[in-house]
Every structure is written in structure tokens, then in C-alpha cells.
């Protein structure tokens, strides 16, 4: 299977599995955001499990030692599949995860959580998922927001770099993101203050009409914080997802990022129970 086929198959399955009320899980937008590194690295980071030629689980090696994954809803309590996944995750020779310290993000309602715990995998740091329903129109955030296209790629990238310490995001990576298969259902937004200065950016990813959409990433320029721009660009993101037909807007951030959680809550997002990765120390 070629690289485009691998990515398309993973994205199709992830789109199909998104539904309201589901626990936080790997989203097509997560694969789309990883496409900033290019199609070949994205395909190499994808892990697919099949049963009878049907996809039953999808993973994304988001970092060298972090696999973010989800499982088909109907198979999340399947004992045989949970055992198979745990075996693959625990054996570096199977090519899913490397040796040494690693972590797995899996849905909270998956039997895999219990199986990994039984095999000695511990809990990692807490993350807070947040959701905003999109049944009703989203209020304006008092910030001029535009959809960023190729002409704004450098500007969008510059704001994102200034939003995250150590970020190396570039104009080239914006173009790689936009060229990825999942970007057909995405929009990059850029917010401008009253002086026309770009101060905040966000990317939103739809999984299809009637399904939850994702914000990933969202950032405010370090020189323009504490002015409400995070709330404003988040409201714009929710409005954009509503226009794309999404049923709700989702985001997940480390619980230690108290300011980030507060920003999302100020934009009408409701915090869900914390989630944690499963970790293997060695």
C-alpha cells in the first residue's frame, strides 16, 4: 500500500469513528497536523490494525516514544484485540513502539487500558479534554479573523512560532500541512488586532458533518497575550467548525496548562474528566 493510500485509509477510519459522546480519541485532525512534516513521514508514523481486512485500530507515532491511538467503537471491549494490541505495544521487535520509555494514548473506555495496567503500564500526566457544542451560533470574539491561504503562510507560521517556546514551524511546513489529505476538511485562521497586527492563529479540523471537530493547534503571540485574543480566536475556531458542519468543537491540553484551560472555558468549552496516557518505563 502506497503512502497516500495508507494515510487515506487511516483518515477514513478515524472519520467514521468520531461521534458525539465518545471519549477523547485520536482525530483525523491529529493526522492532518502531523502532515506538516510531509506525506512520507506522516505515513511512516501511522499504525493500522486490521481484522478480516477491516481496520479495527489506528495509531499515530506523534513523538518517538508516544503512540496516540484509537479503536473502532464496536471493538473497544474485544478481549482478543486488546490482548493483541498490548502485545504489539509491548514488544519493540513488532515495530509499533521503540524500546525504552514509551507512552500510549488510548480511549478511556477501551479494554486496552486495563490490559496495559495488568502488564505494568503506569499512568502519565493528566490532560484535560474540553468540548463546546455547536448547535447554537457562536458569538463574535471581537477580533478580525481571516482564513489563511498560501499568501498568509509565512505570517501564520511566524505567529505560531512566537506562540510556543522552541517551535520551529515554518512557511514550508504550513504548505506541507495544507497539501496533506486531511486538510480538505480544515481551515487555518489568523486573527488581527485593531492595528492590523497578526496576534493569534488556530487550525480547525472537521471530521464530517454531524461529527466533532478539532482545534489543533491554537496559539497567541507571546507579545500580545492577556488581551483576550486566545478567547477570541477560539470562538472564531468554533464558528468555523460550525460552518463546516461539525456537531461540536474539541480540544485537549495538559491539565498543568491552567491558563490554556481557562482560555477555552472562557470561550464556552466545558472541561471533561481528565485523561492520562499509559506509560512503560523501560
From TrEMBL:
Domain of life: Bacteria
Gene Ontology terms for molecular function: acyltransferase activity, transferring groups other than amino-acyl groups
Coiled-coil annotated spans: none
PROSITE patterns assigned to the protein according to its UniProt record, in alphabetical order: GNAT
Occurrences of domain N-acetyltransferase (ranges): 143-282
Protein name: GNAT family N-acetyltransferase
Organism, scientific name: Amycolatopsis iheyensis
Amino acid at each position: 500500500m502506497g503512502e497516500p493510500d495508507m494515510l487515506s485509509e487511516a483518515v477514513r477510519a478515524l472519520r467514521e469513528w468520531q461521534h458525539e459522546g465518545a471519549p477523547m480519541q485520536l482525530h483525523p485532525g491529529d493526522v492532518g497536523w502531523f502532515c506538516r512534516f510531509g506525506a512520507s513521514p506522516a505515513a511512516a508514523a501511522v499504525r493500522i490494525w486490521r481484522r478480516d481486512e477491516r481496520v479495527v485500530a489506528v495509531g499515530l507515532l506523534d513523538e518517538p516514544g508516544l503512540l496516540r491511538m484509537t479503536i473502532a467503537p464496536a471493538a473497544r471491549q474485544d478481549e482478543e484485540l486488546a490482548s493483541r494490541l498490548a502485545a504489539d505495544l509491548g514488544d519493540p521487535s513488532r515495530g509499533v513502539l521503540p524500546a525504552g520509555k514509551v507512552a500510549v494514548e488510548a480511549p478511556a473506555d477501551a479494554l486496552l487500558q486495563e490490559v496495559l495496567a495488568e502488564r505494568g503500564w503506569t499512568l502519565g500526566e493528566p490532560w484535560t479534554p474540553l468540548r463546546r457544542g455547536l448547535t447554537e451560533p457562536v458569538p463574535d470574539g471581537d477580533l478580525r479573523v481571516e482564513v489563511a491561504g498560501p499568501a498568509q503562510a509565512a505570517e501564520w507560521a511566524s505567529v505560531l512560532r512566537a506562540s510556543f517556546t522552541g517551535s520551529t514551524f515554518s512557511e514550508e511546513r504550513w504548505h506541507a500541512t495544507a497539501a496533506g489529505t486531511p486538510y480538505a476538511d480544515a481551515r487555518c485562521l489568523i486573527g488581527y488586532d485593531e492595528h492590523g497586527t497578526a496576534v493569534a492563529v488556530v487550525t480547525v479540523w472537521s471530521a464530517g458533518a454531524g461529527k466533532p471537530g478539532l482545534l489543533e493547534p491554537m496559539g497567541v503571540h507571546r507579545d500580545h497575550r492577556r488581551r483576550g485574543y486566545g478567547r477570541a480566536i477560539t470562538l472564531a475556531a468554533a464558528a468555523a467548525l460550525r460552518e463546516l458542519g461539525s456537531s461540536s468543537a474539541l480540544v485537549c491540553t495538559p491539565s498543568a496548562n491552567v491558563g490554556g484551560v481557562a482560555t477555552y472555558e472562557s470561550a464556552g468549552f466545558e472541561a471533561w474528566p481528565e485523561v492520562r496516557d499509559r506509560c512503560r518505563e523501560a
